[in-house]
């Protein structure tokens, strides 16, 4: 994700304050996003994520926010946090579904807990993605309060102990049902 932001910075012209992100800029971001390596995410999820983040960027960011993200100061951190909460968080359900399904299905411990790993892992991925669809911005605000220097949204989500406890509880619920 960091590469996407840096690549987007290169295509932005220097502009005046509060310049909206144009459709052309969002399309360039989308094309660049599709060209990035995304391990563990299906092509369909990658397309949804790229389209979603391009649209959210147009809705929630200005050119100056994107430019500020490269600064090593509070303004840069504020812009990065805005990007995480207002652009990536509303779109994280797509890669999160794939991540939690793939992690579950490839974990040998899952097979010890259930006789139908595909059903269990689909249940887990559905539960996590559904929760994130409704609550991702709150989740990321919470993560940022505990770790104010995150850069990678998926990495922050998957390494956050509170969110991992939540995911584990959903897995247990899926095994029981």
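Sequence proposed for the structure above (177 residues):
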């Amino acid at each position: 994700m960091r590469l996407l932001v840096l690549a987007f910075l290169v295509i932005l012209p220097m502009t005046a304050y509060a310049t909206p992100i144009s459709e052309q800029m969002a399309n360039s971001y989308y094309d660049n996003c599709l060209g990035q390596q995304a391990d563990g995410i299906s092509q369909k999820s990658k397309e949804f994520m790229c389209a979603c983040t391009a649209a959210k960027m147009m809705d929630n960011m200005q050119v100056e926010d994107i430019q500020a993200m490269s600064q090593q100061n509070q303004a840069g951190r504020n812009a990065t946090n805005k990007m995480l909460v207002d652009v990536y968080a509303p779109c994280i359900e797509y890669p999160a579904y794939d991540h939690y399904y793939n992690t579950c299905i490839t974990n040998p411990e899952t097979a010890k807990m259930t006789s139908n790993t595909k059903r269990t892992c689909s249940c887990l991925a559905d539960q996590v993605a559904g929760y994130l669809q409704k609550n991702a911005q709150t989740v990321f605000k919470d993560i940022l309060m505990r770790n104010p220097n995150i850069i990678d949204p998926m990495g922050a989500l998957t390494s956050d102990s509170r969110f991992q406890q939540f995911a584990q509880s959903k897995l247990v619920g899926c095994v029981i049902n």
